[in-house]
Each structure stands twice: as C-alpha cells, then as structure tokens.
Amino acid sequence: MLKRQRLLLALLDRAGGRATRPWLVHAAFLASQDRAGWASSPLYDFVPHADGPRSFSLDRELEALERDGLVAADDDSLAPTPAGRAECVSIDPTHAFALRGAWHRFGLADASGLVARIARDFPWYAKDPATARPPAPPAIYTVGYRELSIDAFLDGLLRRGVGRIVDVRANPASRRLGFHKSTLRRFAGDVGIAYEHFPRLGVAKELRAEATSSGEINRMFEDYAVRVRTQDDDLAAALALLAERASVLVCAEPEARDCHRSRLAAALAERCALPIEHLDLRK
Fold first, then answer.
1. How far apart are CA 124 and CA 105, in angstroms?
2. Could you tell me if residue 107 is left (phi over 0), alpha (psi between -120 and 50 degrees) or otherwise beta?
3. Which segments of the chain belong to CATH 3.90.190?
4. CATH architecture entry for 133-278
5. Residue percentage of the chain with pLDDT more than 70
6. pTM above the 0.85 mark?
7. Whole-angstrom Cα distance, residue 213 to residue 10?
C-alpha cells in the first residue's frame, strides 16, 4: 500500500469513521497544499475541474481501496472497514504529524466550509477549466510527461493555456496512470483539453530499441529528421491544429533535445512563422 493511501484512510478515520466523497477529495486537496509537510514524499497533485479540485490519481487509488476491502462505499458516503482502520496504525509518522497540522490549519473538520476555503485561498482550483485557462500566444509547443503525474501534467498545460494535446508517440501506450492513449484522451477531455494522435509522426518502438549507443541514437534522430519532412499530409494536418488553438506536441522524454519532438518541431517551423517553445512542466 502506498503511504498516501494510508493518508486517505487516516482522513476518514479522523473524520469520525465516515465522510462524503467530496469532503475526502477537498480535505486531501487542502492537506496536499501544505507542501512543507510532504517535502520528502509529495501527496496528490490536482487539476481544476467543474466540480472543484480533481485528482485522477486519488480517484484511482480510492477505487483500489474499495476493491481491496479497505473502504466501504454507501451512496456518496465512505468509511474505512476494520481492515482499513488497522492500516491507519502503520501510517508514516511524518505523514501523521503533517496530517494533524493540516487538519487544524485548514479547519478540515468544518465540512461545510471547505468549498469556500478553497475558493478563497486556492481560486485556480475552484474554476471551471473551460474558463480558467489563460490565453496562450501562438507557438509550436512541445512537452514530455515523464516524471509527472497525470494531474500535474494536465494542470501544467491548463496553466499555460494549452487547449489541445497532439500526441506524437508512435505507440501511445504507458503503464503510468493517465498516459495510455484512451485514458489520456478521456482525462484531458474531462478538463477541456482536446486530443489528437499522429502515430506516423512518432519513432517506431523497434527503432528506439535498436538504438543503444549515443551514436546510434543520434543517427536515429538524423534519419527521423529527414523522413518526417516527407510526410506532407501529417505535417499539414498538425500545423492546422497548431494554428487553430494553442496545442502541444507530446511525447515521454522530459528533455526536448532527447526526444524526436524537437526535430518534429523544427520541421514544422520550416513551414510556418510560429516560434518553438519547449515546455517544462516540472518547474
């Protein structure tokens, strides 16, 4: 069990053994904002949502707690089972200390006041993402998602005004929650970000596997840079999306220089007047 899953159980236990699902999400959100308390082991990341702060990671882990018989759900009410309460004993001491501090600092016992507190102190997360997203200047944006949770990834895109993901992975599969093609499309859509996939603008998995040395990797990228410039239809379609609204070329590698997306961005820039901007959502 993850340490932060025990925190969810501890929140329910501290609430008297039963609470609503919205209260648990809001309480976990406020507790997560106490960054000093979780410096060595961050809690959940969140994204603005029409219903208030949303964490797809928290949702999935709460489903796991229910599936494993540690939390019982009754309509919108949640309660730790005896097995779940037993797990509270094993909560990380640092987390237990931070939870006590957050409980009093944010007044988590006042269920009726949490929504107002979030709107006052963390207004970004109280907005509908469809209207919260700031305008972004036209550009060829690129980004890598590795080292980010799906929530931090989507939150970072919204904060930068991105309205569409242009997935340029040849094989858009991932074991990381939220980054498989179908899941990414669904989660992005939930927060008002469109999704398009251009598999032919990616690098085949087999080619990546065969390139093991730095020289082979460089040759792979050089070959890609030549090949991608011949894909007129895909390049034209991608450029049309970039011109329509702020869109970002997405792949896994955090650093653009280590990813084919930098070569793709250069090929696109040759066909338009848009600047290239490589985003780093880890900052």
1. 20
2. left
3. 133-278
4. Alpha-Beta Complex (3.90)
5. 97
6. yes
7. 48
